[in-house]
Amino acid sequence: MVSIILPALNEGAMLSMTVDSIARHSGTVPHEVLVVDDGSTDGSVDALRATRPPGVRVIRGGGLGVARARNLGARHARGDRLVFMDAHCRVSPGWLEAFDEVMADRRVGMCGPSFTKLETPEPRGCGMYWADYTLDPCWFEPPDGAGAYYVPLTTGACQVFRREAFDALGRYDAGFTRWGFEDVEMCLRTWLLGYRVAVQPDVTVAHYFREARDNYEVDDAAVTYNFLRMVYLHFSPTRIQQVREAVRGNPHVAVAQDRLADSDVFDRRAALLARRAHDDAWFFDEVNGSPAAVL
After folding, report:
1. Does residue 235 come out as left (phi exceeding 0), alpha (psi in the -120 to 50 range) or beta?
2. Do the domain assignments include residue 195?
3. What pTM, to 2 d.p., does this model score?
4. Residue 79 lies in a domain
């Protein structure tokens, strides 16, 4: 069974759109949808409860944030495949079958789709990389007819795991604040712990890319904290300094740094370093570039 986990916070009509799209395009693959209500006040989850679509369960979260809401959904999930997806998406026909073909490769710890904007089918992006030490992600355009391939990163708008790999990776980091970087940190961790990140361009997820966070407030200082948490968890001291220099114009760095000092980040860093199959130098030298070998 595949468990599709949708954290939801004030998604409006897009929540029902996402659930309907999953129902229409998942074919005969046994699946369930778990909507984690993370404190919605706009009635969107209430409307879903009232209609009771088959195979859909609503789990009460309440201010957990993306990482912990996803982990809560995973704890309630019955499937041996876990799909974590934003609740403002449309999926393409046959998407679950296409993901299963990639996830059958035991080297793959995580898989993502090709993405478009909800309002237009082009351009498509399929996988991402970091171009410089600001760590702003850049998209790959999927090569025609290439099939699945390895990438450094894929966005959390849709990330697919085998349950055993998700548990082995340690789940999403519960130390992240409400939103930001929990998805790319998970990609980086997947590579460093010895798995691979792949994308399947045959699957298209049309995603609503917000120009501004209009469904709930996001604290820029908290996002900066998440950014630095990812960096301090995985990068060498030299690379941490290179990143700090690249983002020196960010006015929230000092506050985020103070918050980081009072967090569990250094204990968690030590635990991750003890388990790593590769270091961050290997990631930047061998992975963070053009799409890797086709599967």
Report:
1. beta
2. no
3. 0.95
4. no
